[in-house]
Automatic annotation (TrEMBL):
InterPro entries: AAA+_ATPase, ABC_transporter-like_ATP-bd, ABC_transporter-like_CS, ABC_transpr_LolD-like, Glyco_hydro_18_chit_AS, MacB-like_ATP-bd, P-loop_NTPase. It comes from Pelobacter propionicus (strain DSM 2379 / NBRC 103807 / OttBd1). PROSITE patterns: ABC_TRANSPORTER_1 (PS00211), ABC_TRANSPORTER_2 (PS50893), GH18_1 (PS01095). Pfam families: ABC_tran (PF00005). It comes from the Bacteria. Belongs to the ABC transporter superfamily. One of its GO terms (molecular function) is ATP hydrolysis activity. This is ABC transporter related protein. Residues 5-227 form the ABC transporter domain. GO terms for cellular component: plasma membrane. Keywords: ATP-binding, Cell membrane, Membrane, Nucleotide-binding, Translocase, Transport. GO terms for biological process: carbohydrate metabolic process; lipoprotein localization to outer membrane; protein localization to outer membrane.
Length: 227
């Protein structure tokens, strides 16, 4: 197995002086290519903060993240944005689909922004929507879809530029249990099909245990709780 990502002594603080809060206090984490990691921890433990650093959405206060050996925070902002668009897909609890666009258009959007030719973007997006079980909902707008279906569209959108790493931050946080199980199962299937490296933040320890290894964030440090 080859290493996709290596975080070392990753630190993040917010605020200054007396209002300074140390959220991450030296995180070491290795992600092997094609593996799934569930990230669990209490509310406010810093799970989203860590995911944002792994996905280069924010800069750490200290430490390094190497992606295929490349120290990502040495890149300029412009290089970092290009790296992120190419290599990392994000799924959030609130998926921010564009309400006035169809499912197909929502999934195509990152591809069009990345200047993928329209015809290719349509076929990529249609295939991904079929993969997430929505091949029959291409022209529906988000408001015409259920919560679980909307999250499936968001997952398809996250995959449209073929990322190596998919980061999902409580993707089932506002779904009922049955729908959550379906979305987690889908993430597992897509991880295998696309050979993705997947990190999923979840409060649901039952789903976490079913996903692969679990790492637990507590007091700003990570503990491996299961493999
Ligand atoms: N931009 C920010 N400025 C200041 N403090 C922040 C900022 N972002 C997060 N924090 C603080 O960092 C801590 C960790 O937040 P984070 O959202 O990473 O936790 P979490 O484990 O994802 O929580 P939850 O499970 O409730 O989503 C919290 O105390 C939060 O208030």
């Amino acid at each position: 197995m080859s290493k996709l990502l290596e975080a070392r002594d990753l630190r993040k603080s917010y605020g200054n002086g007396e209002s300074r809060v140390n959220v991450l206090n030296g995180i070491d984490l290795d992600l092997e290519q094609g593996t799934t990691t569930a990230l669990v921890g209490a509310s406010g433990a810093g799970k989203s903060t860590l995911l944002h650093l792994l996905g280069a959405l924010d800069h750490p206060s200290g430490g390094t993240v190497r992606f295929r050996g490349d120290d990502i925070f040495r890149k300029s902002d412009r290089e970092l944005a290009a790296f992120r668009n190419k290599s990392i897909g994000f799924v959030f609890q609130f998926h921010h689909l564009l309400p006035e666009f169809s499912a197909l258009e929502n999934v195509m959007m990152p591809a069009l922004i990345a200047r993928v030719p329209r015809r290719d973007a349509i076929s990529l997006a249609s295939a991904l929507l079929a993969d997430v079980g929505l091949g029959h909902r291409l022209t529906h707008r988000p408001g015409e879809l259920s919560g679980g279906e909307q999250q499936r569209v968001a997952i398809a959108r996250a995959l449209v530029l073929s990322p190596d790493l998919l980061l999902a931050d409580e993707p089932t946080g506002n779904l009922d249990m049955k729908t959550s199980d379906g979305v987690h199962a889908l993430l597992g299937d897509l991880q295998k099909k696309h050979g993705l490296t997947l990190v999923v933040v979840t409060h649901n320890e039952r789903l976490a245990a079913a996903m692969g290894r679990t790492v637990h964030l507590t007091d700003g440090k990570l503990e491996l709780t299961s493999i």
